[in-house]
Design brief:
By secondary structure, the protein is mainly α. The chain folds into 2 domains: 114 residues, Cytochrome c-like domain (Cytochrome Bc1 Complex, Chain D, domain 2, Orthogonal Bundle), CATH 1.10.760.10; 79 residues. 46% of the residues lie in helices and 0% in strands. The protein contains 10 helices and no strands. Helix 4 runs parallel beside helix 10 and helix 7 packs across helix 10.
Length: 248
């Protein structure tokens, strides 16, 4: 007896459907959950915030995924040293907050936009989590100063504030450090065209904060700059970036 073709097709369809259902059930299913909120007490210390922030940076915030590859995104190893010099009118904390809440507002020269707003899905960090990340970023080339009471422009605070005065004091200290190392002996304003030791007048117009930091860090000479501390480097960079105007 010949089985009708329609019946054969029906049996084949049932068998294939059953087979794929069996395969589908055997594959482990992965449940996707919203990002877990990290509970941060209001009385944590700055040091504790740094530890929390580092954990978020390397984990939930997935910051390390991109910023470990400096060919795609800026290197953050010394971000605390240059944050206050990146965008006029912003203190270091202001700049770091803007970079996290509104990363498209300022793009470092030589890089393309692409960083997501990390307070929104899929990352979805809370304000205390972001503040902790800022605390950790401050330790990359500097010292953490924020507390759980710190307010940024994105959490009800004002842009600038007391930290602007602190940055101004740091810049003034940078001039003192330059004098202490005798930088003016070689970088004479009367010889601005010397290719080996150009004048520092107007250098803030010619070099970025990152370039200044690199030149100071890798400076060659017997002036003792190889013994300079990171705090001194930071203050010198802040001072030099404020040297504006035509070269002497």
């Amino acid at each position: 007896m010949k089985i009708p073709i329609t019946l054969q097709l029906a049996v084949l369809t049932v068998l294939l459907t059953g087979f794929y259902m069996m395969v589908g059930q055997s594959v482990p299913q992965k449940e996707v959950h919203p990002p877990e909120v990290i509970e941060i007490a209001e009385d944590v210390t700055t040091e504790e915030m740094v530890a929390i922030g580092r954990g978020i940076y390397e984990g939930k915030g997935i910051c390390f995924t991109c910023h470990a590859n400096t060919s795609r995104y800026p290197d953050l190893n010394n971000i605390s040293s240059v944050a206050a010099t990146r965008k006029a009118g912003l203190t270091a904390v202001d700049y770091l907050a803007e970079s996290l809440y509104d990363p498209g507002a300022y793009i470092v020269e030589g890089f393309n936009p692409g960083m997501p707003e990390i307070n929104k899905p899929p990352i979805g960090l809370t304000d205390p989590e972001i503040l902790s990340v800022i605390a950790y970023l401050q330790t990359l080339g500097g010292e953490a100063t924020v507390t759980m009471d710190t307010r940024t422009a994105y959490t009800g605070g004002d842009v600038g504030g007391d930290e602007a005065a602190a940055d101004g004091a740091a810049a003034a200290a940078g001039g003192t450090v330059l004098d202490a190392y005798g930088c003016g002996r070689c970088h004479d304003a009367e010889q601005p065209e010397d290719p080996k030791s150009p004048s520092l007048k107007g250098i803030g117009d010619r070099l970025s904060a990152d370039q200044l930091l690199s030149k100071l860090y890798y400076h060659e000479g017997d002036d003792g700059l190889d013994q300079v501390t990171m705090t001194e480097l930071e203050s010198m960079v802040q001072f030099l970036t404020e040297q504006r105007g035509e070269q002497g």
